[in-house]
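Morning run. Coffee first, then this:
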Amino acid sequence: MIDAAVVDAAVVDAAAVDAAEIDEAVISATRGLGAPARPIVLVHGTRTSSAIWAPQVAELQRRGHGTVAIDLPGHGARTHERFTLEGALDAVDAAVTSCAAPPLLVGLSLGGYVSLAYAGRHEDRVAGVVAAGCSTQTRGPLLRAYSRVSTRVADVLHLGGGTWHVVTDMLHALAAYSPLADLRRLTLPVWLVNGRHDPLRLEERRYLRAHAGARLTVVPRAGHDVNTHAPEAFNRVLVAALRELAPQRGA
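And here it is:
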């Protein structure tokens, strides 16, 4: 069961982080001093694409942040490929290394797991991680059952054309992965973001215990796709994270 006190505090925090608190004059002054805005890499969830980040890309670019939204193997412009964890990590690495400075790495659902896995391998290459909609480990009886029936359900309901295989590819790729293990070893800042109605909030308490500095935000009236269900609230979390990471070292 999710700790009610933790969730209630997180919901208050989500409501309290107001984009208006980010003074546009301060942003302009910072740019004038030559301090570069922190870049951001955005990693989508299963059976979606980089297009889900449109509300975030627009706001972040308006604020001067170089923003890269990628397509993972098996998704978007890469639908013809099969999903593998190594292929996903390579896609993230290409985006990260294209940035002028260590970016804030933001992932939703599958993208959250991939982002934590990438940070676990290359902590020195990113400034922090926002992991949304992924506060349950990709293992256990519930997910094993989902893996067994997912293809059958898709066939019966005629879902997804020929791309449903990416779900079983994803479950197979992440079957042995432990986000908790990576959270325990990370020292960089981590923000956990979940919609209140997201079923993948089952292990929020364990995630928070795994990383002493992790912050949790639960967004009211949002489900699993929290960035599209509540784009303004999600953007406020990102802006607050970027504010905490600034100024960059050596800037």
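The two ends are 44 Å apart (CA to CA). Good start to the day.
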